[in-house]
């Protein structure tokens, strides 16, 4: 197995040079800064996106991925829209909605509805999800990397249905290490009319293990004639974002899991690539207050009971990497009411940096 290119930050001082990056254009839309928030199922809902917007730095935000067939069924039966579209109609723009399925006609109908009724800025297609429920059961997500012609059909139908709203695609390098085909897939994506391509630098079989291969992401650029390439994978610091732009042939980057407990990461990354001082991490008290604001937004939408249950995983993200995080996670994983949540946060959320040994 090839060894993926690692991020070596030795000698890099990202605050000393404005990279003077050319504008990232998706269709006629300029994404500034060229830093995108990844769509993540179960996490990037309206509440999270509002927290990110509060800090700034993300040029394009995205919803959780939406099951196109499920959306279509709800629409036909005049049921409520999926929770994953919570807030989309009234939210600030630009905003991307990511959808997935393997049926071109269904995808096209849903895409058109998103454009006409929800006025979304971008319709993104998920060709990268490695989860078995999506791949093996639904033959969608990264499974479709095995069937480039079907990918082309889906993209073409969506481009036609959504025009003039741009359609983009997100892929992985391939299904497995012995079937890496991202260079060929990139050409299919472009020739089918997509306005941009995002590549996660792992194969589907890796899920999120190992390290993203930015060399292979960068190689894809030479196989594209006009649409931008957006790199994704392991961007967990402003320094790594800076290095991705400086050392690899990408037009934009997408930040994923690292931002879940650090929504201020986008602002830090935007400062780095502009040659400005990187804002410091918020204090632990400020981070706790950010989490509580996030909790309030979730409860407003889903009610106290469901909102508290949903917030457990977010609370764990906010504590990640801090002294005492395991202790906090143990307690917050069992909360069921607002009173219990606030008590656990008050008693166990780490708000003091331990003194040096």
UniProtKB/TrEMBL annotation:
Gene3D superfamilies: Aldolase class I, Putative flavin oxidoreducatase, domain 2. It catalyses: a 5,6-dihydrouridine in tRNA + NAD(+) = a uridine in tRNA + NADH + H(+); a 5,6-dihydrouridine in tRNA + NADP(+) = a uridine in tRNA + NADPH + H(+). Residues 37-348 form the DUS-like FMN-binding domain. Coiled coil: none annotated. It holds the Pfam family Dus. CDD domains: DUS_like_FMN. Its EC number is 1.3.1.-. Belongs to the dus family. This is tRNA-dihydrouridine synthase. It comes from Bremerella volcania.
């Amino acid at each position: 197995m090839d060894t993926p290119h690692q991020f070596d930050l030795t000698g890099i001082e990202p605050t000393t040079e404005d990279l003077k990056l050319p504008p990232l254009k998706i269709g006629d839309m300029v994404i500034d800064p060229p830093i995108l928030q990844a769509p993540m199922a179960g996490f990037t809902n309206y509440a999270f996106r509002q927290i990110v917007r509060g800090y700034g730095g993300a040029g394009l935000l995205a919803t959780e991925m939406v099951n196109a067939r499920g959306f279509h069924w709800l629409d036909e039966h005049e049921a409520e829209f999926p929770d994953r579209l919570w807030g989309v109609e009234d939210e600030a723009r630009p905003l991307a909605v990511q959808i997935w399925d393997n049926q071109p006609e269904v995808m096209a109908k849903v895409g058109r509805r998103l454009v006409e009724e929800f006025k979304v800025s971008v319709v993104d297609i998920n060709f990268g999800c490695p989860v078995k429920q999506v791949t093996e059961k639904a033959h969608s997500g990264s499974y479709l990397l095995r069937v480039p012609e079907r990918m082309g059909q889906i993209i073409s139908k969506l481009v036609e249905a959504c025009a003039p709203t741009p359609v983009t695609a997100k892929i992985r390098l391939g299904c497995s290490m012995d079937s890496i085909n991202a260079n060929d897939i990139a050409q299919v994506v472009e020739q089918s009319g997509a306005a941009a391509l995002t590549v996660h630098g792992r194969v589907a079989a890796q899920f999120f293990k190992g390290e993203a291969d930015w060399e292979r992401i960068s190689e894809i650029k030479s196989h594209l004639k006009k649409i931008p390439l957006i790199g994704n994978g392991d961007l967990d610091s402003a320094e790594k974002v800076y290095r991705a732009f400086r050392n690899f042939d990408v037009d934009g980057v997408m930040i994923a899991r690292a931002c879940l407990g650090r929504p201020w990461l986008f602002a830090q990354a935007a400062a780095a690539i502009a040659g400005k001082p990187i804002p410091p991490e918020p204090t632990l008290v400020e981070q706790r207050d950010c989490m509580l604001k996030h909790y309030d937004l979730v409860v407003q939408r889903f009610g106290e009971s469901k909102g508290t249950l949903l917030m457990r995983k977010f609370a764990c993200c906010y504590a990640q990497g801090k002294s005492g995080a395991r202790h906090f996670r143990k307690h917050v994983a069992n909360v069921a009411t607002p009173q219990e949540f606030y008590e656990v946060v008050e008693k166990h959320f780490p708000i003091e940096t331990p003194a040096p040994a």
